[in-house]
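Researcher: Please predict.
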Amino acid sequence: MLGSSILVALAAAAGAVASPLDLITRSTPAGTGTNNGFFYSFWTDGAGSVTYNNGPGGSYDVTWSNVGNFVAGKGWNPGASRVVTYNGTWNGANVNSYLSVYGWTKNPLIEYYVVESFGTYNPSSGASKLGSIQSDGGTYDIYRTQRVNQPSIEGTSTFYQFWSVRQQKRIGGSVTMKNHFDAWAASGLQLGTHNYQILATEGYQSSGSAQINVEQS
């Protein structure tokens, strides 16, 4: 009788509760594409578990467990000197994770970050500070690092990374990208032709979750 009662209850709730199959169906596979008028990118090195879901408009959610490395988010292709506005929740403050405006250029090949918040590891650790700027109510420190024979939008390559790392961590607000691009150029850091630009969640050897919504102001 107990089993029958459970089956009846489950049947009654079937219309209101998503089945495991529904959850699997809506999960977005690794790759790039467009969704509800926004570009998205989801990259993972394949270690651990990452579930990324595109939501309405500029929203997405991502949950990760014991990952190697992943980067995922929504934005635009190509990138530009736009004002990126975002909000949401980011459960990465106590693990190795970043929340940033993230993008790439070609000719030269550059990977760039405007880091709004980071967890247990400051991505600028070990890098030489090139300067700082005041923007959007906070102070960002500027750095350049180099990656040698690492994954990129052009395959395995050697390239520079440009960084603006916000001193006053936050989860939500506006990011005036022109201010960062101008400050990088003044520090001798030249971008190329813009490829994509997203509000990204990144995790490295960690577990966590985020729900983010991005828009252009």
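Model: Residues 2-13 form the longest helix (12 residues).
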